Amino acid sequence: MILKTFGWSFAITAAGLAFAAWQWGWEAFGIVLILSILEISLSFDNAVVNAGILKKMNAFWQKIFLTIGILIAVFGMRLVFPVAIVAISAKVGPIEAVQLALDKPEQYEALVTDAHPAIAAFGGMFLLMIFLDFIFDERDHKWLGWLERPLSKLGKVDMLSVCVALIVLLITAMTFATNAHTSSGYADKSATVLLSGVAGLITYLAVNGLSSFFENKLEEEEEREHEEEEKAKAEGKQVSAVGLAGKAAFFLFLYLEVLDASFSFDGVIGAFAITNHIFWMALGLGIGAMYVRSLTVYLVRQGTLDDYVYLEHGAHYAIGALAAILLITIEHEISEIITGLVGVLLIGASFWSSVVRNKRVAAEGGEDSEDKTTVHV
After folding, report:
1. Residue range 152-170: average pLDDT?
2. Contacts of 342 (CB under 8 A, 6+ apart)
3. Residue 207 confidence (pLDDT) above 60
4. Residue 241 clears pLDDT 50, i.e. is over it
5. C-alpha to C-alpha distance for 335 and 248, rounded to whole angstroms
6. Is the alpha carbon torsion for 282, 172, 107, 22 positive or negative?
7. What is the pLDDT of residues 70-82, one digit of tens each?
8. Based on C-alpha coordinates, what's the Rg of the chain?
9. Helices (H), 175-272
């Protein structure tokens, strides 16, 4: 079962890491490996959400999502999107950006360095909003209870996440951005950082709004399908549970693609905190995306969702750490290895806490309320 589901992911991982080591050396091997782990950890909740929704669809639409959907996810969001970000930030064409990365790496590096304050501000705000919306939300399980309990109460204030993010952006513009690192030295990039940060905030709100729109459409279609099923039962017709089809499945597919794209943002943007090399980035994120899809299939086929309740917390704390690192790197350079390990360590700690919690609950013979307010590491 494991080999059948994850076989392609294992093969692509081996081929991708071997290619990175052969083409660029062991540094590339390490960065690609870290990016793969980062993408898997940050997108774990994506796989869980996808599996929960995908099981409602019939076999045809499941196949569409797992074939066409993976092309969009791997080649669209993990390959085209990083190139587009560099092209827009550096004000060059996408083809020119790729050619520069291939033929003139030093010139490309200079362009990316000059564009880094804009990329960091945009990505930092986007990731920060993901983290803030998570940390201000009331949840059944709390990993760091001493922190999450008071913040979840504060989260009842409307638009608090946006206000906090804007305050952080203003502080960043008045501190790190006044002495931003560029290819020719240090320069004042306050206006650029403010503009890019607001753009990142708007992008997050737009993606969330679009997701909500499709979610509402989906609920309407599911309600209509349910009414038709009830009507058919009342008329004595046999109704078979084959999963949603037709217009309902189409809206479900669109909703999943929007969700998948929004989940992809954090991995792509977070990758810029680790490396500016678009080919290392695309390779590492592509490998990670394959595992996310394989995990989705595994969860659907097993019929159960994973019970590691703190993993989502660890992923979002990693997102928050990456947001902070991106904003700091506007002025200060931070080693890619350190940046990558921060996320890996947070995910590892949350995984271990989940294992300890599950063992304790199993030993006690049921759900323990204490695990909802404490951390176990």
Report:
1. 86
2. 318, 321, 322, 325
3. yes
4. no
5. 47
6. negative
7. 777 667 777 777 7
8. 22
9. 190-234, 246-271
CA distance 361 to 265: 35
Three-state DSSP class for residue 317: helix
The answer to whether 201 and 165 are in contact (CB under 8 A) is yes
Q: Is the pLDDT of residue 304 over 50?
A: no
Please, what is the end-to-end C-alpha distance for the chain in angstroms?
Answer: 31
Is there a contact between 84 and 98 (Cβ–Cβ < 8 Å)? Answer: no
Residues 39-66, mean pLDDT to the nearest whole number: 69
**Pick the residue with more confidence: 258 or 351?**
351
Tallying the residues shown for the chain, one arrives at: 377
C-alpha 32: how far from chain center: 17
CB atoms within 10 A of CB 63: 12
CA distance 21 to 16: 9
Say what the pLDDT of residue 270 is. 66
Distance CA 228, CA 76 (A): 37
One-letter identity of residue 120: A
Cα angle 345, 350, 356; round to 5: 125
Q: Which amino acid is at 260?
A: D
